[in-house]
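Exam prep: given the inputs below (a chain plus adenosine-5'-triphosphate), describe the expected output before reading on.
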Amino acid sequence: MTMTPHTLPAPADAGRAPGEAREIDEAIAFNGVGMTYSTNGGRPRQVLDGVDLRLARGEFTALVGRSGSGKTTLLNMVAGLVDPTSGSVTVMGRRPRDARPHLGFMLARDALLPWRSALRNVEYGLELRGVPKAERRSVALHWLDAVHLRHAERLWPWQLSQGMRQRVALARTWALDPDILVMDEPFAALDMNTRQSVQQRFVDLWQSEEHRTVLFVTHDLGEAIALADRVVVIGGGRVVEDLKVDIERPRDLPLITLNRRYEEIYQHLRGRIG
Ligand SMILES: Nc1ncnc2c1ncn2[C@@H]1O[C@H](COP(=O)(O)OP(=O)(O)OP(=O)(O)O)[C@@H](O)[C@H]1O
Ligand SMILES: [Mg+2]
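Solution:
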């Protein structure tokens, strides 16, 4: 069964046309995806059982669900690191392994290379791609600037706060110009204030250009609603909820919790996560 995102009944004063202009091409498709892990000696463990999910290009989707519900497993499939035991995953219409050049990854504690400065960490992926030095330097400086870290270009990772390190990781991911951003709790390790400013920087960047497709896993339901176009709840191995976040952009993150729509969506989804 394929679920299309639904919308909670709109409040009478919503007055907004549904669906913003965006490309309808498919960026990621999970087709009846099942996953059973076999463990050493133990009984096989079924984690996913028929996940159907289609992400349009340019769409920002947040995946939420209890710990162990299989969110990271789904991301690993998109990365081509694991294959589903049933069903299939396609990325930009291809096998995930063949689509890797389109992907940018970011994790909760993104490892920066300790022997490289902030700037040279941002350059790293470009270096692997063989981008000439002058060009990669200017691209890296541009993205360091975009995350407000131009002043820190020469600092080593151990001289940066966790929030600064995650911003360097964000710049490094963006510098590769990926069509699809795959993020596994990228801001989870940050304290609340830092998290809010890094989140804001992130949505501002995302909104400032033609939208990249984002698949974003988070434990924080509030973060999911604040950032995403669509929140998908994974539970019992399946998609149990797929909800469009009809809160207009640009969003002012510190204030979004005051929005009545935010509260309605929050309460609804909280009930679905259980
Ligand atoms: N390589 C593996 N071998 C065996 N079991 C695994 C493997 N990877 C994940 N699992 C199991 O699959 C289940 C789902 O794991 P997964 O990491 O996808 O969950 P998650 O939703 O990301 O959880 P969390 O929110 O805690 O990060 C867990 O029970 C986990 O122990
Ligand atoms: Mg996980």
